[in-house]
Amino acid sequence: MSLVFLLALIHAVTSKHQSVGDPFVDPRSPCSQHGMFEDDVCRCDNCYVGATCETKSETCVVDASSGSPFFTDDYWISEVRNGNKDSTVTIAPYYHIGYGAFVGAGNCGGFAPVSGGCRNDLETEIRALHDAVGNFKHNGYTLVMGVGSTELIAASIYSLLDSSQNATVFSEEPYYNGHSGVAEFFGRNWAQSAEEAEANARTYGRNSTLEFVTSPSNPTGAMRTKQVASGTAVFDSAYFWPHFTPITADRKLSDHDVALFTLSKITGHASSRIGWAFVKNADMAARLSGYVGASGGLVRESQLRATTILASERRRGYPVLTFASERMASRWSALESVLGSSACYSLQPRGGRATDMWSGKTYAPSPAYAWIRCVSGNDCYQTMLSAGVRGRAGPKFGANKDHVRLELLMGEPDFQSMLDLLRKLQSKC
Amino acid sequence: MSLVFLLALIHAVTSKHQSVGDPFVDPRSPCSQHGMFEDDVCRCDNCYVGATCETKSETCVVDASSGSPFFTDDYWISEVRNGNKDSTVTIAPYYHIGYGAFVGAGNCGGFAPVSGGCRNDLETEIRALHDAVGNFKHNGYTLVMGVGSTELIAASIYSLLDSSQNATVFSEEPYYNGHSGVAEFFGRNWAQSAEEAEANARTYGRNSTLEFVTSPSNPTGAMRTKQVASGTAVFDSAYFWPHFTPITADRKLSDHDVALFTLSKITGHASSRIGWAFVKNADMAARLSGYVGASGGLVRESQLRATTILASERRRGYPVLTFASERMASRWSALESVLGSSACYSLQPRGGRATDMWSGKTYAPSPAYAWIRCVSGNDCYQTMLSAGVRGRAGPKFGANKDHVRLELLMGEPDFQSMLDLLRKLQSKC
């Protein structure tokens, strides 16, 4: 531990009257305001290095390749600064020795969805959130929790499809590479077109063909519809929240379809790995939770934290959604002011303005990703990387090299750094 | 919430000067000392009911059917009562927004084992624990973390075996039903004998045949050796700790074998779902972590808690192991005083005394389960259930109905209740 780091830490601790177990009032203070202090180390913003993030890097590359939702960092810091303690969890070492992941479940235990009078506090909070936002009417649906929606993607691909050689997965291009990657992991076929998938489903039955309807789309943000009428559809609804698109109606499913959601793209708590599926068909729910159970089940601590945070938000009308909506809107304004009329770099269309049911406000979608086409037809990933912005290349989504995806979910300092780099790039257009 | 419950809670809170976020000094106090208070509800001991566990049940059945390690409850309560705060975790809402499960990993992120100078604090603590106990020499082994060792059992069965129709799993009888259950979930063959498994491995190659060597055995506690020389062996080492058996030598593996461990049977934190595999072969490690990644990866909060608890234990010489050893030894003394010379109910042999390397003490094994044979040849599960003790029936482990497994890992009040019921049963022998 360097001396400068130690001094910064001592300053941060003493100046805020930090006591053991209390969170830092300003976790960026020990890191020169250019990083977050956690686990006794500074996690620096892009372009800053050093033990206390004190040095600006000369060879700066902004990482816009993932979807890590640091954009809510500032909101949660302000919660602590404003003295709201009820979204902080303290876990004694004796807390819930033994099995059983569901908070409030008492002796009900087990991996399967809790029913029959047992409490599942996280499920209650999740359903309340959907009630408030209006994006899914969950009455009559079983909720199956997973280790992030990623596990429910895996569970769908493994357990909703039959085990024949004809088992096929499809998603409209450009598709989320998390769907194609897991399909490949489980050795499933990947259909090249909706027609091919539909033909497969008609020949081999509904359980032979699974379609991921990612709506809003990752990477484009466009709303999608089911393309394979005879197959099973999993509506990946990770981005179907007011900060990404105005919610004008609830998501409607056929009786054998599934809707997936994830906490990570709502509150930002991605490493808590809280995802859920709504399923009407009892056999399909059992298959999904069978996979989750066989793969080790669910984790108690993250569910306790998610429950605590969602309950705190519910009591105050979900201010995190207001924060996230304003932040995404301002990012799109800034991005369009730089690239909106560029002759070299074409942003995807955002979609029209509409009135969101939750906020009552009228606005255009502000997708989680910029899906950029290099008008030159050049390799757009390389073009951006040369400019200091690492995106995710078009071919990963089944698109051409002239496309690249840039995430817009990073922390605010990283977003501003990226914007500066894009401005420089555009100035040479 | 009933009035009596509210009053008990107010008493508990005010009498201990409870403040927001602090753990209860005595979490059994709001529950009439017959249960644990968590998530605003009492989880009652077996045989007690009511909102504050205030009523003894007339129709009492003790649940000895799982392996939920409540036997460490009292240790962790005493930690808090003794004022040791460094095994309590406080998690601010801004803690680690975004992906990345590994505590201390900084920007290293990802699901795969962290290397190349990145810190992984939990891995460091796990390796230190093995160094102290001496049960596994981990130099040269990759550590792959999973959602409990259960996920690594699933990962082994899915990803270490090839996908042919000949893929076969074997474990010596009586075997742990967690192994056979997951093999069935993934549609693998289950070999009926070591000879059958060995023949399969010789015909179709090492990747066709997976053996679980559960040592000490669940359910018997006996030490096991590899039976299928030509296959891949996964040594399920959940019970290879000083409180279950004196550790006289480290576990040795062939280069293509795997060792599994789990936090649940060490500290009792089962719902944290912290399991790990040691693997020498790089391709096998990649396959295991590939399954974990595809299934949603790992959870940050539970790893933070596990790291905190193991570090606190390490600094004081792992007193939880001393507590657990004394408790298991006293339970076996008590059990043998009731059933040790029974003409009706035969306990498994415990194995001989040996000197444990960690404690330097000499003692006989104290297995996690009693594996009981009803000498009459009757259905032993039903016999026990009629006496008020719900075990797990012999056939689940591939044994006959004359056997039943009773767990010895429950909370102390439940263990004493079970002992009373067994004493009554034996008195009628």
From TrEMBL, chains A, B:
<dbReference type="GO" id="GO:0008483">
    <property type="term" value="F:transaminase activity"/>
</dbReference>
<keyword id="KW-0663">Pyridoxal phosphate</keyword>
<dbReference type="InterPro" id="IPR015422">
    <property type="entry name" value="PyrdxlP-dep_Trfase_small"/>
</dbReference>
<comment type="similarity">
    <text>Belongs to the alliinase family.</text>
</comment>
<dbReference type="InterPro" id="IPR050478">
    <property type="entry name" value="Ethylene_sulfur-biosynth"/>
</dbReference>
<dbReference type="InterPro" id="IPR006948">
    <property type="entry name" value="Alliinase_C"/>
</dbReference>
<dbReference type="InterPro" id="IPR015421">
    <property type="entry name" value="PyrdxlP-dep_Trfase_major"/>
</dbReference>
<dbReference type="GO" id="GO:0006520">
    <property type="term" value="P:amino acid metabolic process"/>
</dbReference>
<dbReference type="Pfam" id="PF04864">
    <property type="entry name" value="Alliinase_C"/>
</dbReference>
<keyword id="KW-0732">Signal</keyword>
<dbReference type="GO" id="GO:0016846">
    <property type="term" value="F:carbon-sulfur lyase activity"/>
</dbReference>
<dbReference type="InterPro" id="IPR037029">
    <property type="entry name" value="Alliinase_N_sf"/>
</dbReference>
<protein>
    <recommendedName>
        <fullName>Alliinase C-terminal domain-containing protein</fullName>
    </recommendedName>
</protein>
<feature type="signal peptide">
    <location>
        <begin position="1"/>
        <end position="15"/>
    </location>
</feature>
<feature type="domain" description="Alliinase C-terminal">
    <location>
        <begin position="62"/>
        <end position="425"/>
    </location>
</feature>
<dbReference type="InterPro" id="IPR015424">
    <property type="entry name" value="PyrdxlP-dep_Trfase"/>
</dbReference>
